[in-house]
Amino acid sequence: MTTNNELLRIMERISNTTATDEEIIQFNIWCDSFRGTEQQVPGLEEIQSKVLARIHQTINRKKARIIPMYARRFAAAAAVILVVSAGLFYYRSLKFDQSLSDIAKQDIAPGSNKAILTLGSGKRIVLTGAANGELAKEEGVVITKAADGQLIYTVSGKDSNSSDFNTIETPRGGQHQLRLPDGTEIWLNAATTLKYPANFTALKERRVQLSGEAYFQVAKDGSHPFIVETDRSSVEVLGTHFDVNAYKDDAVVKTTLLEGSVKVLRGAVVKVIKPNQQAVSDGGGIVVKEVVADDAIAWKNGYFMFSSDRLDNIMSRIARWYDVDVVYGDESLKREIFLGTISRYEKISKVLRMLERTGTVVFEVKGNTVRINRKE
Hints:
alpha+beta
């Protein structure tokens, strides 16, 4: 018979991604023995608190592993939402299904640094294949590509009154980083467009237009506010770190703050958010909620973070990064919940395998399309 100490050890190994398949199956058998009963689990509170702490530490260390949960009801602790069943933590079995090998046969590589720069003159530069060094000169500004691929704007020494805008676009399966002439650094996620002045020198404010998602580290300038415009809201700062998620096919715009303060505006509605808060803007206004801000920029740090996310939200991110289309054989699957992390630089087969191992879903990859069915 499995003792409490042995179960606690297995649960801790599950949470820090070192458990074997046999240990997870053993744990699931124990969990299943309590399903549908009112039987109390000895030492459950101690087990819960220790596993919650370990999972929170694991997420902070950005472990590359999905931690699947059985979706029945939710409990929140230490800003980590876990899914519990019958009053205890339940992890689905990691039984290997032979059909998983079909995913690898149709494998798809992850995204990479890809973008197109359009200058004020209308000239387009494909940054993916562009050589390092100077790319272009505009009035008062030199544009260069660094060895790490970053696009850098430098004021050349003479002021410019030019109001020309540049536009940088990342495709699905692309990302890019740039540094504006004021020192502001911006990371662009996949399928994102950013329009901005080539030079802020003669402008009273630093205003850019965003569609998609970007992480901003805005250089401090108390006399020149930095404003990010989206189609549903705008963000105004003087100098801080924040993420704006404003994809046109998403129902809301999310602004998440990591440092400093941010003013989010939608019409006459104005909200000021603090670090670890997120402003969610939809057709009805702006709602502010507490979040773990690092989760919102997981993409910028090279991994997917699923914090009790619905499958349709997860697959939207996967579709943009791997440039695939997603089809659901069962629409109810969109509401399934997952929690965990995995590297964005794995091939799609590994990401889908981890999701399949929850026992909820099965994937079929054909060409550029991923079909999702319920596991029978």
